[in-house]
Design goal:
Length: about 160
């Protein structure tokens, strides 16, 4: 019976052995940086997607129409040159997928309110109407396509 206990010479207690903390901390640092780095990249991807899908088409639409208004001879007669649109413009919903932008357009000779109506289909913005409302409530249509619409009817 004494031979059974001869092979056991030490008490192997994992608590009494020194632990190497330096090598474990490297893994924690790499793990934390990798985890936060991955979260950061995902958030950047989502932000870029939102910018490209939602914000950029809106700003392109707004810039195109503001440029149309500020370069319009009708606006320059009211406001003088240079005509400038005060930013940010007000945004109002007029119905499902219908948006109206409005803001002050002014120059050295006066000011007016620029109104742009749009229909939104997904991420596509289409102008429905664009006009200025002068201080005496006169509305001046600025839509270049409307300039060529003639109301020809036979009234007899």
């Amino acid at each position: 019976m004494s031979h059974e206990f001869e092979n056991v010479t030490t008490n192997e207690n994992p608590i009494s052995q020194p632990q190497s903390t330096k090598s474990n901390s490297k893994y924690w640092i790499f793990g934390a940086v990798g985890c936060f780095g991955l979260i950061f990249l995902v958030c950047c991807g989502i932000g870029l997607g939102v910018y490209l899908v939602i914000y950029k088409p809106f700003t392109d639409f707004q810039t195109e129409n503001v440029t149309l208004a500020t370069e319009s001879p009708e606006v320059q007669l009211v406001t003088g040159t240079p005509a400038v649109v005060k930013q940010p413009m007000n945004i109002a919903t007029k119905g499902p997928q219908e948006i109206e932008l409005s803001g002050e357009i002014s120059g050295p000779d006066g000011s007016a309110t620029l109104v742009i109506g749009a229909k939104v289909n997904g991420v596509t913005w289409e102008r429905d109407y664009i006009f200025i409302r002068t201080e005496d409530d006169q509305e001046i249509n600025l839509d270049p396509e409307a300039m060529f619409e003639l109301d020809i009817s036979d009234e007899e």
